Amino acid sequence: MAKKVILDVDTGSDDAIAILAALASPELEVVAICTVAGNKSIDKTTENTLRVLDLFGSNVPVFRGCKEPLTKDLTPSRWESSPRKTLIIDGEEIQIHDDYLSLPPSKRQAETMSAVEFYLKEVPKISEPVTIIAVGPLTNLGVALTIDAEALCQNVAEIYIMGGGVSITNYSPSAEFNIWFDPEAAQKVVNCGVPTIWVPLDATHEAYVTSAHTARLREGSNPWCEFAANTIDQRIMVHDALQPLAEPNAGTVHDALAVCAAIKLDVLTNCFERHLSIGIGGAADGQTIVDPRVYPLEPNCKFALGADRNLFAEWLLSALMR
Ligand code: RIB
Ligand code: CA
Q1: DSSP label of 122
Q2: Could you identify the atom of ligand 1 that is nearest to the CA of residue 162?
Q3: The pLDDT value given to residue 35
Q4: Ligand 1: which residues within 6 Å by Cβ?
Q5: DSSP of 84-97, one letter per residue?
Q6: CA 177–ligand 2 middle distance (angstroms)
Q7: What are φ and ψ of residue 112, in 5° steps?
Q8: Largest Cα–Cα separation, the chain
Q9: Do residues 35 and 41 lie in contact, with contact meaning Cβ atoms separated by under 8 Å?
């Protein structure tokens, strides 16, 4: 029986791969996709999500979510991020996330119901407990929990979260982007009582794919294989230039690892019950603070600090080329 899942995305490049892999996996039934502002504005992340669904030929409903974090933008100083290095080739900036995915504009619209309304009104009606795979800022869930935590949590079995980082960060010295973007929402999710499985940068940076994988992917006959290979190759180019991994010609596909974990939890390594709290404000804004002490605080989540790269890469290719 396929696991019913809801994807919560800020589509961007790795979100797009995650969506394709989830749709292509028989172990999952994607019942809905909720969009959120993060990598790009809510308009762009929603349009990009619709474009990916058109590419796959899926009519999974898309629910447009929050356009800004819970409270962070009320304090402008919290938005100051580290100076960003850029990759310029032939006078053009090569980004890890383009504003719009290189796909035809979608002819579809998102549903009229908002993502938060969907979480509160429709999720409780689903015939069995659902799994949420959240791979962007957690604002939608943070708002839904603020309005009616019981309504949301009563029919949610578990939440997989791509976010955070302990020995690896990316958007600031202390934080990974998704959690940095909305720390308060992340803390609400940690507190909500639904089992959460965290897939941080410590895991996603181990589970990189290489240009040898994208070369294999190009041989796939599915109409999305070339797009996926091009998308990952662009990520590899930016990683090689600005965020090198353990070997050259390698790139992360953060969000797809969270999807893989929802199917094969053993893709995550060093994944244990841990106590997690979220830094809010100051230098630790958005930090995922995992209690490292021998006698830590009561565990409140599963938090992986590694991943099986070969298992992930072979799963990803088999899903996209199925
Ligand atoms: O830090 C990586 C995460 O931030 C990924 O989910 C990426 O898509 C961005 O949302
Ligand atoms: Ca994302």
Answers
A1: I
A2: 6
A3: 99
A4: 10, 12, 14-15, 38-39, 135-136, 162, 170, 176-178, 254-255
A5: PP--EETTEE--SS
A6: 9
A7: -75, -30
A8: 55
A9: no
What is the residue whose two structure tokens read 């589970």?
Answer: 207
Query: pTM of the predicted model, to two decimals?
Result: 0.98
SS3 263: helix
Q: Is 238 helix (H, G, I), strand (E, B) or coil?
A: helix
Exposure of 122 in the CB half-sphere (CA atoms within 13 A) = 16
Report pLDDT digits (tens) over 236-280: 999 999 999 999 999 999 999 999 999 999 999 999 999 999 999
Structure token digits, residue 92: 């053009």
Question: CATH number of the domain that 28 lies in?
Answer: 3.90.245.10
User: Residue 24 belongs to what domain range?
Assistant: 3-321
- Using the predicted structure, report yes or no on whether residue 83 has a pLDDT greater than 80: no
From ligand 1's centre to the CA of 178, what distance in Å?
6
242: which residues sit within 8 A by CB, 6+ positions away? 85, 86, 87
Q: What atom of ligand 1 comes closest to residue 10's alpha carbon?
A: 10
Q: Residue range 160-183: average pLDDT? A: 97
Number of domains the chain is built from: 1
Question: Could you identify the residue written with the tokens 């578990």?
Answer: 158
- Angstrom distances, CA of residue 94 to CA of 48, 75, 127, 177: 18, 30, 44, 19
The length of the chain in residues reads: 322
Q: What is the CA radius of gyration of the chain?
A: 18
80 pLDDT exceeds 90?
A: no
Q: What atom of ligand 1 comes closest to residue 12's alpha carbon?
A: 8
First vs last C-alpha separation in the chain: 19
Q: What are phi and psi of 149, to 5 degrees?
A: -60, -40
Active site residues: 254
Distance 287 CA to ligand 1 centre (A): 15
Alpha-carbon distance of 117 to 115, in angstroms, equals 5
Cα distances (Å, whole numbers) of residue 95 to 9, 12, 215, 235: 18, 10, 21, 8
